Amino acid sequence: MDRIRLGLVLHPTRDVSPVVDTIAAWAARHSAALAVRAQDRHRVPEPVQAVPEADLVARSDVLVSIGGDGTMLGALRLAVHDPRPVLGVHLGKVGFLVEVEPPELSAALDRLLARNFTVEAHSCLVCDVCGDDVVAFNDIALVRQPGRGFITATLAVDGQRYGYYRCDALVVSTPTGSTAYSYAAGGPLVSPATRAVVVTPSAPMAGISRAVVLSPDEAVRLELRPESAPIAVESDGLLIREAATSGAVSIRYREDAGQVVRLDPRRYQERSQLKLSLLDLPLLPEQLRELLPDGVRRELDRRDLPPQR
């Protein structure tokens, strides 16, 4: 790329100014163009161009997500109809998607400019109850309203009914999303290299009580029964419909819907495996050390060196 165009996607509430300042300084040195959504104009310096949200992807070669996994998911959804590589800069806690820590950012941007990176494809789910514009890279959930009873819904796969659920929530997830709401509801951990759709009931009272793993080519339909409590529908944790008392939610898997920048795929995989083990498995001290940013780890290594004689 002779002149790279970066679109900035900011965490909605965190202070992102130190990271944005680093990007702006780098952009000035490399004549790079920077853009941000118009609603975030007040959070960035003057050289960053504010554009309508609908235009940000078209005006960007790469999106830079500044935040945690939630911000990264938002950037992927933003580009779902015209995928762009998304670089995640980590301001969160335990993130599974983001790769770059703020001290590594300038070097990461150099890699982008030199096209020295790989792209990791991500699938998504499309929920047709609200149109194709509603997508989820983690999960789509049907959630009961507190104090209004339980969700009662039938499961159909490719038009064939298989049973019913009576539970607090139904979570349909991608492999990437299997570590999120689905896991909390008792679902399996699914390798992100797998193509699959997972349907997991939360706090099941009757009917199907275990997670179901389906082929990505199978269409999932969850239809509310007349006795069901009102439900809310969430996409990646965002409310898209509330107080639904009838109808059905049809969900399909879409392959290669998002692109995530990977600068060091092997290191990312190792760190993700360690973060995964935080969910269930005890870690050795040396494994915990691998979760630390490079600068902190180097300082600990320096302190552990034997004294020079």
UniProtKB/TrEMBL annotation:
The keyword Chaperone does not apply. SUPFAM superfamilies: NAD kinase/diacylglycerol kinase-like. Keywords: ATP-binding, Cytoplasm, Kinase, NAD, NADP, Nucleotide-binding, Transferase. InterPro entries: ATP-NAD_kinase_N (IPR017438), ATP-NAD_kinase_PpnK-typ_C (IPR017437), NAD/diacylglycerol_kinase_sf (IPR016064), NADK (IPR002504). NAD(+) binds at residues 69-70, 138-139, 166, 168, 203. Involved in the regulation of the intracellular balance of NAD and NADP, and is a key enzyme in the biosynthesis of NADP. Catalyzes specifically the phosphorylation on 2'-hydroxyl of the adenosine moiety of NAD to yield NADP. Belongs to the NAD kinase family. This is NAD kinase. It comes from Micromonospora craterilacus. The gene is nadK.
